[in-house]
Structures are given as structure tokens and as C-alpha cells.
Amino acid sequence: MRVKVDQPKCVASGQCVLAAPAVFDQDDDGIVRILVDRPEAAHHEDVKESVAVCPAAAIWVEEEE
Ligand code: SF4
User: Fold this and answer.
1) Among 6, 40, 49, 59, who pairs with 19 as Cys (CB 3.0-4.6 Å)?
2) Ligand 1 contact, 23 CB (< 6 A)
3) In whole angstroms, how far apart are CA 45 and each of 1, 29, 42, 51, 64?
4) What is the pLDDT of residue 65?
5) Taking a C-beta distance cutoff of 8 angstroms, is the pair 26, 14 a contact?
6) Residues 6+ apart with CB under 8 A from 16
7) Model pTM score
8) Residue ID of nearest Cα to ligand 1 atom 4
9) Mean pLDDT in each 10-residue stretch from start to end of the chain (65 residues)?
């Protein structure tokens, strides 16, 4: 899994950080930052939850071989 974000779309809601704190953080303006762009399998469900709850649809994942 490769995690992608579109920072210009981010509305700084912080939902992704609540769902997957090991993978996402926010900068001083609240804009999403990726901590780990290829998270371990243990975090994949949390990332999918972040994708689902992001109000700006600013997060997506690419499945890798
Ligand atoms: S959930 Fe979406 S809008 Fe909210 S901080 Fe994360 S990427 Fe930005």
C-alpha cells in the first residue's frame, strides 16, 4: 500500500490523524502530512478508515504488487 494525499484539498479537519496516528500528522496550519507512505500491514485498516472519513476526499491509496 502506498498512501497519497492532496494537500491543497485538505481542510485540516484532523480526522485522518485520529483514525491513523501512526501514518498521518498535521503541520502548524493543520494540513495533513504523511509520516509513513508505505505503512506496515498492521496499519492498513486504519489508513482505509482515514480515506473513508476524510471530509475533503484528500487521501487515497495505491495498492502495490
Ligand atoms: S482528514 Fe482529510 S481534510 Fe482532515 S486533516 Fe486529514 S487529509 Fe486533511
Assistant:
1) 49
2) no
3) 11, 26, 7, 10, 16
4) 73
5) yes
6) 23, 24, 32, 50, 53, 54, 59
7) 0.95
8) 13
9) 98 98 98 98 98 98 90
